[in-house]
Design a protein that fits this description.
MetI-like fold; elongated
């Protein structure tokens, strides 16, 4: 028979762990409130130097992306061929590129577009994969079989080849605005990446479906959609959140790769990948054209990877 305390907790949308803490009187904080996985994880993260360093870097990049004019007054698209490939100086901290554009200004304004691609693609990938994974994990049977086969079809597509085909199709349609170019890349990355997120969420959903708080909610007459999105989703977020954090940095690097191949972002959008692509033919004669955007890209990806590792260690009790 289901314990009434657990059943009441399930009906109010709480987790099984929190319900047990109420029932047993354990796991409470200083003010008598129950401790959750998220509060324990936050307390652990605040003591991790890796998390603090990564968070500071990411917060700084967000500020740069939102307020680029705070860091440079130069026009990133202003061209002066008389300054072509000039080395760093007091006038231009990172020097000038082939067309005489200020590399520092382009790197600052490129932060916005690079982060926008990473965040947009990560959000769309996780949302699509999470919803499909929850449905497959909860309903099982024919629904799970059909959705899993669809995911396997997309999972079997070569990532780079698929991106080249999709982006070339968009390029032939005459997409010119910077925002449209970003959404084009976001769509291609999300369409090819959601199966991994789906598998992660499906595994978490299958495990959560067997828990007592789900059985209690079902016994109380809760609908399938209420159980999925009110009870199971909050308790399946931990693994997908870790994956999304690491995925964000990976997408920024993938955008740079696609831009280097000539099928990603392009003018008028300015990104680190576009800057690296422009510098590829001048590595020997003007290495600073490649050094600065590549260095910023490396630091950014590393920061998101470090953040993902710290979040994973905090949310997994076995790794503490």
């Amino acid at each position: 028979m289901t314990d009434p305390t657990i059943a009441a907790q399930a009906d109010s949308g709480g987790s099984y762990v929190t319900a047990l803490e109420h029932a047993d009187g354990g796991g409470t904080g200083k003010k008598g409130k129950p401790r959750s996985l998220w509060s324990d994880a936050w307390g652990d993260l605040r003591r991790r130097p890796l998390f603090i360093i990564a968070s500071v870097i990411i917060l700084f990049l967000i500020v740069v992306a939102v307020f680029p004019e705070w860091f440079t007054s130069a026009d990133p698209n202003h061209r002066d061929l008389s300054r072509s490939r000039q080395t760093p100086s007091s006038d231009a901290l990172f020097g000038y590129d082939v067309q005489g554009q200020d590399i520092f200004a382009r790197a600052v304004y490129g932060t916005r577009w690079s982060l926008l691609v990473g965040v947009g693609a990560a959000v769309f990938t996780v949302v699509i994969g999470a919803v499909i994974g929850l449905l497959a994990g909860y309903f099982g049977g024919a629904v799970d079989g059909f959705l899993s086969r669809v995911a396997e079809v997309f999972f079997g597509l070569p990532f780079v080849l698929g991106a080249i085909i999709i982006l070339n199709a968009f390029r032939s349609s005459g997409v010119d605005s910077a925002f449209a170019l970003v959404m084009m890349v976001v769509f291609a990355l999300s369409l090819l990446s959601w199966p991994v997120a789906m598998r992660i969420m499906r595994s978490a959903a299958i495990s959560a479906k067997q828990q007592d708080y789900v059985k209690a909610a079902r016994a109380l007459g809760a609908s399938a959609w209420r159980i999925i999105f009110r009870h199971m989703l909050p308790n399946c977020l931990a693994p997908i959140l870790v994956y999304a954090t690491i995925l964000l940095g990976s997408f920024i690097a993938v955008e740079a790769t696609l831009s280097f191949l000539g099928i990603g972002l392009r003018d008028p959008a300015v990104s680190w990948g576009v800057m690296i692509s422009d510098a590829r033919n001048y590595i020997r004669v003007a290495p600073h054209l490649l050094l600065f955007p590549a260095g910023i890209l490396t630091i950014t990806v590393l920061a998101f990877v470090m953040l993902g590792d710290a979040v994973r260690d905090a949310l997994d009790p076995k790794l503490r």
